[in-house]
Write a structure and sequence with these properties.
about 350 residues; 13 helices; eight-stranded mixed beta sheet; alpha/beta; about 15% strand; 8 strands; about 45% helix
């Protein structure tokens, strides 16, 4: 893939017709292997070229995507970010080749990525409910650590002032959210955002211990209100909000609890956004201190509802490519349907979608 040092510039991008690309803040949800959907969305947005990125905020797999995208953007522009994302997800898939947790023939017949009938998944799932990672993974092996150290230049991210990067984690002892910012970004801080407590030991940073950020913000939006100039937030959603039927099987109930839990803080922040929007629309902006945020979303709820939580551990390349292609298709649809609203108005009805 051909690259150029400044492919974010309008002059290097015929798609904008000479106009500057519209800036957005990317907010990226977490969801294990489902993060490959976000890879596809970002890949399509960057390929199109009419969108530029002021900042990225991500949780868990969203933090991984955010860090890798930021690395690519600061090293080689849009094409650099696209290449970096593909390298990252290929490395994830290659690491998964050594895992015994793979879809069974029945899984492959029943769904595109679920592991519900995989004997090794069932065994591992039961094991994590009886023993902690301090017992079953005493060496704290995490293949993502090596991938991040090898592929992401965090020193360059910290030194760059053009792209803001935020990730979040949950403080184990205080139960509070911790947002890590560009100037302090490291591989360990990204790993803290993706530390599922049933799989990995808590990540220690400066004497504090952290678990997955999804428990407190998936992703947190408030840094984008206060620390970014751009008022457009493009939220890439992985976890479905709505479900057509009441879950009845144990697996379906667990999956729905997981979705609700990891969406809860996002829903509260969206209520706050709508509250501020209503105040501004009524003529009160607190002397200019309140800022109206324009909300845009990209998701694939219908397809994601068909995937169980087990599929978040499926890092097989065919499944990751299916998610990537789905993300590219949804990103393309967003550009076709809502690009003209970016910088003008929200393309998502926050009240209808989240309240």
């Amino acid at each position: 893939m051909a690259t150029s040092p400044r492919t974010n510039d309008a002059a290097a991008n015929p798609a904008t017709g000479g106009a500057a690309p519209k800036p957005v803040n990317l907010a990226l949800q977490g969801g294990g292997a489902h993060g490959a959907f976000t890879w596809g969305v970002i890949d399509r947005l960057l390929e199109d070229g009419r969108i530029s990125v002021e900042s990225l905020v991500g949780t868990s797999a969203g933090a991984m995507n955010a860090a890798v995208t930021a690395h690519g953007l600061v090293t080689n522009g849009r094409d650099g970010a696209r290449d970096a994302l593909e390298r990252f997800w290929r490395a994830v898939s290659e690491a998964a080749l050594f895992s015994p947790i793979k879809p069974s023939p029945l899984d492959r017949w029943m769904s595109v990525g679920n592991l519900d009938f995989s004997p090794m998944f069932q065994w591992f799932d039961a094991l994590t409910r009886m023993a902690s990672p301090y017992q079953i993974n005493p060496a704290n092996f995490n293949p993502l650590r090596d991938i991040l150290y090898e592929q992401v230049d965090f020193k360059r991210i910290r030194a760059n002032s053009d792209i803001k990067l935020f990730t979040c984690a949950t403080n184990v002892n205080t139960g509070r959210i911790k947002v890590f910012r560009t100037h302090e970004m490291t591989a360990e801080r990204v790993l803290a955002s993706a530390c599922l407590p049933f799989l990995y030991q808590a990540v220690e940073i400066e004497g504090q211990h952290y678990w997955d950020g999804g428990y407190m913000g998936n992703p947190p939006l408030y840094p984008l209100f206060y620390e970014c100039a751009t008022q457009d937030i493009l939220l890439v959603m992985i976890n479905p909000i709505r479900m057509a039927e009441v879950p009845r099987s144990p697996t379906a109930i667990f999956d729905r609890i997981n979705e609700i839990s990891f969406n809860s803080n996002l829903m509260r922040e969206m209520r706050a956004i709508q509250f501020v929007t209503d105040l501004i629309d009524k003529g009160f902006d607190d002397g200019g201190r309140l800022k109206k945020m324009r909300i845009h979303t990209v998701d694939a709820e219908e397809q994601m509802r068909r995937l169980s939580t087990s599929s978040k551990l499926n890092a097989g390349w065919p499944f990751l490519c299916w998610l990537r292609d789905l993300g590219r298709a949804r990103g393309h649809a967003f550009l076709d349907e809502h690009y003209d609203k970016v910088g003008v108005e929200s393309s998502t009805d926050v009240r209808e979608r989240f309240l």
